[in-house]
Design a protein that fits this description.
A hairpin with a 5-residue loop joins strand 20 and strand 21. It is built from 17 helices and 26 strands. The chain has a 9-stranded mixed beta sheet with strand order 2-1-12-11-13-14-15-16-17, with helices on both faces. Strands 7-6-5-3-4-8 form a 6-stranded parallel beta sheet, sandwiched between helices. The chain has 516 residues and is α/β, with parallel strands linked by helices. It starts with a helix and ends in a 9-residue tail after the last helix. Among the domains are: 27-173, Rossmann fold, CATH 3.40.50.980; 407-507, GMP Synthetase, Chain A, domain 3 (2-Layer Sandwich), CATH 3.30.300. Helix 1 (3-9) packs across helix 2 (27-43), helix 2 (27-43) packs across helix 3 and helix 10 (254-261) crosses helix 12 (288-298).
Length: 516
């Protein structure tokens, strides 16, 4: 389905509600405004197959823009609101975006981006930005009827490349595809839904530039569900919203579970969460005790999946199956699983290896043919991987045993240490550096830099703070280390390869580390 259908069948029903402000956008308004923005795209020469970029906080305008691009046959790039101007510049230029739409709350970075890029148009939402045109005013000048050449678009989201630079995941866009044709996620969600569309209320607590919140929200809108969008996650506010709106579905990350479980018992018991029929989680490993407590508290409504922005496969597990296979991320619901060794040979049940999917479309990394090729199995090039390591049990349930290329997952956010390493190594006091994830009770992992100082530089708290500030001046804070340790000589092979696993394992209590 498409929100335009619900604009006819229930025009005054809320398509979404902003949690803090209470601003409500109905299906009729969403349909009309997305039509107007689609017309605005065409008026500025943005045609099927072109790209636009959104750099915004969670805003009531977000879905008006996304649905306008979705019904215009465009790629829409959703950029993290935490990035610095050079990082935003790289993404808009690498993606080939013709238009950048930014929210006024990010005006400082957005203004700098305007000065260092040269796109066809710059539009602002939720207020004014210097040298940006107000989208709301431009939109109001357009008719609210559909464009003549409506066709389905798709998101283009960014993941990390081997050099630390983000790489766009650019699906093949079938120009001319109808706007209401189903996709894999829609079919899956429909099969899992335990309430009718008109009765479904989906609560989204995370930033909309992330793949999962964006895609699940748009999928539930296709069902006719009402979305409740949190501008920022707060554990008690989340529970309050579940009770207030009788939320039926939501998607979280394990860190959110931890924060809610740490609330005083009287606060947790204060709110009625019995309306929940499906609480989905993903994006980071969930400690077994945490998930056990959540199932005990909310009942058997906790569901988990393992997938990536690349969309090349997906597993799923419900509470009942998980209680019988604790620690598993489920069985495949999209694609067929294969566990393989480094040569691409399939391994027996129980043996860990690289996780591959078959029967799906392999990922296509924009402007990175090597990364695209590297995702394919050497003996079965139609099989593809995200680079993660896992094993299968005799019942076909998948267990993750490692994560790709030392990617750090902190609070459900993917952090690629190469970016911070590339910055820190340029500091004159740094001879060598390894950025790793170390244990953090609340977030799962946090970012740490292990630094080998240049000759003649003494270790001190002042130097550590200087390096942290240097990194923060170049990268988004979330990508930067929270702390610095010093090492007189980081372990490197004579060829120059850093044995990062040896460094990382010191902090994870592993004594039998092997060089990889």
């Amino acid at each position: 389905m498409h929100p335009s259908h619900f604009a006819k069948s229930k025009p005054d029903a809320p398509a979404y509600i902003m949690a803090n402000s209470g601003e409500t956008v109905t299906f009729k308004q969403l349909d009309q405004r997305s039509n107007q923005i689609a017309r605005l795209f065409r008026a500025h020469g943005v045609n099927p197959g072109d790209t636009i970029a959104i750099f915004a906080e969670n805003s009531p305008r977000y879905f008006e823009i996304a649905w306008a691009a979705q019904r215009s046959g465009l790629y829409y790039v959703c950029i993290s609101s935490r990035l610095t101007a050079p990082e935003v510049q790289y993404i808009v230029e690498d993606s080939g975006a013709k238009v950048l739409i930014a929210s006024a709350g990010l005006s400082g970075v957005a203004t700098e981006v305007r000065q260092i890029t040269n796109l066809d148009a710059y539009w602002s939402i939720d207020g004014d930005i210097v040298e940006y045109q107000p989208l709301e005013e431009l939109r109001a000048q357009q008719p609210d009827t559909p464009i003549a050449d409506e066709m389905a678009g798709t998101d283009m989201l960014y993941s990390s490349g081997t050099t630390g630079r983000p790489k766009g995941i650019r699906p093949q866009l079938e120009l001319g595809q109808k706007i209401d044709e189903p996709n894999v996620l829609l079919a899956l969600a429909k099969a899992l839904a335990k309430a009718d569309g008109p009765d479904m209320v989906y609560l989204s607590p995370a930033p909309l530039y992330h793949a999962a919140p964006l895609r699940w929200c748009m999928t539930f809108t296709r069902f006719g569900a009402t979305l409740v969008i949190m501008e920022k996650f707060d554990p008690e506010k989340f529970l309050e919203l579940v009770e207030k709106y009788k939320v039926t579905h939501t998607q979280l990350v394990p860190t959110m579970f931890v924060k809610m479980l740490k609330l005083p018992e009287e606060v947790r018991e204060k709110y009625d969460v019995s309306s929940l029929v499906s609480a989905i989680h993903a994006a980071a490993p969930c400690p077994i005790p945490v998930k056990e407590q959540m199932i005990k508290w909310w009942g058997p409504v906790i569901e988990e999946y393992y997938a990536g922005s690349e969309g090349n496969g997906m597993t799923w597990i419900n509470s009942s199956d998980w209680l019988n296979h604790k620690g598993s991320v489920g069985r495949p619901v999209h694609g067929e699983l294969h566990i393989c060794d480094e040569e691409g040979n399939e391994l027996p049940v129980g043996e860990p290896g690289t996780i591959y999917y078959s029967g799906t479309t392999p990922p296509n990394y924009h402007n990175d043919p090597e990364k695209t090729k590297g995702a394919l199995n050497p003996k079965h090039p139609e099989w593809s991987t995200l680079g993660d390591v896992g094993k299968l049990d005799e019942d076909g349930f998948l267990y993750l045993t490692d994560r790709k290329a030392f990617m750090i997952i902190s609070g459900g956010v993917n952090i690629y240490p190469q970016e911070a390493e590339n910055v820190l190594i340029t500091h004159p006091k740094v001879a060598d550096v390894a950025v790793i994830g170390v244990p953090n009770e609340e977030f799962g992992e946090e970012v740490k830099a292990v630094v080998q100082l240049a000759e003649g530089i003494a270790e001190s708290e002042e130097v550590a703070e200087e390096l942290l500030e240097f990194c923060r001046s170049k990268l988004a804070k979330i990508k930067c280390p929270k702390s610095v340790d010093f090492d007189p000589a980081l372990p490197r092979h004579p060829t120059g390869k850093l044995y990062k696993r040896l460094v990382r394992d010191r902090y994870w209590g592993k004594e039998d580390s092997t060089i990889v």
